[in-house]
Amino acid sequence: xxxxxxxxxxxxxxxxxxxxxxxxxxxxxxxxxxxxxxxxxxxxxxxxxxxxxxxxxxxxxxxxxxxxxxxxxxxxxxxxxxxxxxxxxxxxxxxxxxxxxxxxxxxxxxxxxxxxxxxxxxxxxxxxxxxxxxxxxxxxxxxxxxxxxxxxxxxxxxxxxxxxxxxxxxxxxxxxxxxxxxxxxxxxxxxxxxxxxxxxxxxxxxxxxxxxxxxxxxxxxxxxxxxxxxxxxxxxxxxxxxxxxxxxxxxxxxxxxxxxxxxxxxxxxxxxxxxxxxxxxxxxxxxxxxxxxxxxxxxxxxxxxxxxxxxxxxxxxxxxxxxxxxxxxxxxxxxxxxxxxxxxxxxxxxxxxxxxxxxxxxxxxxxxxxxxxxxxxxxxxxxxxxxxxxxxxxxxxxxxxxxxxxxxxxxxxxxxxxxxxxxxxxxxxxxxxxxxxxxxxxxxxxxxxxxxxxxxxxxxxxxxxxxxxxxxxxxxxxxxxxxxxxxxxxxxx
Length: 493
Description:
18 helices; Amino acid/polyamine transporter I; mainly alpha; 493 residues
């Protein structure tokens, strides 16, 4: 078994708590909590179902693999060892590109909306609006640029801000319910339906994947074999609570039909914070600042791990130039890849500011949705690689093992893969399963565009990413072959 060469200049600084905090900062998504809550009472049921039937086996197989293969690059290394460099390059492209697009196309807009509504007015399309979004994006990028020994404290602070804001909101919602009655729950149906399940499954899977992300910094962990399994287990439990309880709190406080995907969390906070009287305004401002900080550090946490994966792919000869995979000798971070992510996020933000209006808004929303689900698509290769490593490389020491050995690992992997396939299909081809099972589905009412337009943009986005990844791989391969030919042609001295 061969793995990519180790990266020089790296310092081991990540302890168990740091790994856990990075997982919490990356995985818990403030921007999807409101979107999940739009599913109504059955969203609570489906969160619980997916936490048991998906997250538990997911955590088990990734904990074992992350402890057994702790090399820098994480999932890139796993897929490369299992299926070869071309498959790893394609997979990493999908895993990486999600994050600058998400940072520039979702996180920054949600953060700007919260700042504009609860801290200081920014307006829409104003100089202040552009300035806030640029500062937000590049603050997240610079957090990834600084050495991990220092940057980890920023993501840890973000994880703390996230948990604090959610806990404070949930406690306030309970107090509001005790004082005014849990009126939101009275009109909420908790009975699960096929329509609700198919609408929520891609969002919930996207919300729960990513606990393996800190493994991208495997060579910077002090004791990955010992710490990774525990960190994944603890961060998974925290994430489940941080989704389940706030969604239930939003539903209990907000009247039926008042929950919106973008403003769900802060709109519900505006309502329940009325119990604080004159303190309502300052407390809302405080929570809004925590909200923005949490979003920023979530973006930076993903930049830290995804940029390392893509840098390892470049350094391994799989993405245009090995120079893109260089780690700074003093900082120990892939600065060039960080900057590329920042430019990508900025371009996408500028496109959103100019295109997400009028008739173009529905099309842009479709492209953004597909770009975000590319993370889910990347697991179509990552998850099978875990089973391939388990079966082909039994000689590798495994400090942690899934219960029931190879059989338990195989069953857990197949279960996780079934969920990933389902979520990917529903994300790329919405409405098809509803049609198969005779469930009414008005495509244009849901997406604002026709199915033909939707599929043209969704499949076009996927094909474009495949072309870019293939071009990056072939470009570097031809360059390497040319250099080898030149060396062979030189006369011996």
